[in-house]
Amino acid sequence: MKLVVVGGSGYLGSEIIQAADDTDVKVYGTYHEHQGPGLVYFNLADEDSWDNIGKIEPDLLVWAAKRYFLDLPRFSHFINKIQSLGSRVIYVSSDIINCNEALNAENDLGNYARHKRAEHQLVDEQFGEQTVITGPIYGENSAGRLDGRSRRLVELAGQPQEYWDNVIKTFVSVRGLACTIVAKRHQTSPQDAYIGPGSRESYYQFHLRRATELGLPTENITASQLDTQEAQKRGICMDTSYADEKSRLWWPEQEISLRNN
Ligand SMILES: NC(=O)c1ccc[n+]([C@@H]2O[C@H](COP(=O)([O-])OP(=O)(O)OC[C@H]3O[C@@H](n4cnc5c(N)ncnc54)[C@H](OP(=O)(O)O)[C@@H]3O)[C@@H](O)[C@H]2O)c1
Predict the structure, then answer these.
(1) Is residue 223 part of a domain?
(2) CATH at 126
(3) Which of 5, 9, 12, 75, when mutated, tests ligand 1's pocket best, judged by the most ligand atoms within 8 Å of its CB?
(4) Which residue puts its alpha carbon closest to atom 26 of ligand 1?
(5) What's the number of domains the chain is made of?
(6) Atom of ligand 1 nearest to the CA of 30
């Protein structure tokens, strides 16, 4: 099987490449601005670069690119081309598509939410391809890159820090998510797949746990409450967690061994 990871130079994409490398899959990744060893150039806005993917003739394409502008006609044209090559698609979506506050917000978060939701709906409803929904991703990836929240914890170690204890998420480890996506390569499901550990945490609980995992002091980390009106204004949902029945597709990290899958 040939797999192309669009966004292979990114935080999640590079981990998907690493996870696929442990299997029988021949994996290719793309970059846009940050060139890396073995990556091919691809920019959604530059149609000439699409041929770089066409030449690979993938069986499966995982869309793990993050962009901050919506260009739905071109995205649709691209997915159409991928299907015409005989390739399936897995689109990495976000829990933000279920957050009405974000979808209505006139700020960067709102732009991101509308963009993800529009692409998600197109992939799912028009093209009948697989979408996977994830909450905030964390952890050190195989390239040694940490998520932004953990990086900030390291930078602020020992300094007073407050995190909301009434904003709830399903936080998803980068390795677990990458392995779950790779493990799904032989499956097709018309439904959204919620991927995650089946648990919920507030931002406060998450930061406390991460500080402990990273060996950082925790006495300086305290809980605060986000005012619901303020949340509405900023486009923040109080709870976008998903757990239990929806997140059965999680591949528990301690069981990750993809070689035989
Ligand atoms: N991180 C999270 O907490 C989180 C949560 C939910 C969902 N997601 C979704 O997961 C996916 C990966 O996120 P991430 O955090 O790994 O993002 P990231 O580290 O910012 O990586 C983004 C990737 O997209 C590529 N890219 C940017 N503009 C592009 C364009 N015009 N055409 C083609 N590729 C382009 C980048 O290439 P260069 O770096 O080479 O320019 C990079 O490889 C995204 O779809 C995101 O919406 C992420």
Answers:
(1) no
(2) 3.40.50.720
(3) 12
(4) 65
(5) 1
(6) 43
pTM greater than the 0.85 cutoff: yes
pLDDT 10s digits, 120-151: 999 999 999 999 999 999 999 989 999 999 99
Separation between Cα atoms, residue 158 and residue 121, nearest integer Å: 43
How far is 78 from 243, CA to CA, in rounded Å? Answer: 33
Strand partners, 164: 224
The Å distance, Cα 67 to ligand 1 centre, comes to 6
Query: CA-CA distance, 216 to 56, in Å (whole number)?
Result: 44
In the predicted model, what is the mean pLDDT of the chain? 91
> Would 138 be classed as within a structural domain?
yes
Distance CA 201, CA 239 (A): 10
User: Token pair for residue 2?
Assistant: 């040939």
Amino acid at 259: R
Instruction: Identify whether 155 is part of a domain.
Output: no
In a domain, 98, yes or no: yes
**Nearest of 173, 78, 241 to residue 181 by alpha carbon:** 173
For residue 132, what are the domain limits?
Answer: 2-143+171-198+244-248
Q: For residues 7-27, b (16+ Cβ closer than 10 Å) or e, as one string? A: bbbbbbbbbbbbbbeebebeb
Q: Where are the alpha helices (DSSP H) in 71-226?
A: 72-84, 100-103, 108-121, 148-155, 174-183, 203-213
